[in-house]
Specification:
81 residues; elongated
């Protein structure tokens, strides 16, 4: 059974979990690059509450996750075919 969905979840929690799932321990730098930034400073500023995370960035992270899911699913399908 999954946990109840919060009304106002902290987007930093989502960003950290998604970033680590996508890129491992150096996720801030790699995620920043995937979002079009040259370095991880922008992501660190979001995580430190120095700047608000733009909704466009969160949407792009969702797209990156969906893309990874499709890639992994296709790999599993190939393996079991």
């Amino acid at each position: 059974m999954s946990a109840p969905k919060q009304d106002n979840p902290d987007p930093r929690v989502f960003l950290a979990k998604a970033g680590e799932a996508l890129y491992g321990s150096r996720w801030q730098t790699e995620l920043a690059r995937a979002l079009g930034y040259k370095e991880g400073r922008q992501v660190r500023q979001w995580m430190n509450l120095d700047r608000k995370i733009p909704e466009q960035a969160l949407e792009k992270v969702r797209e990156l996750l969906q893309s990874r899911i499709k890639t992994l699913s296709a790999l599993l399908d190939e393996e079991t075919a």
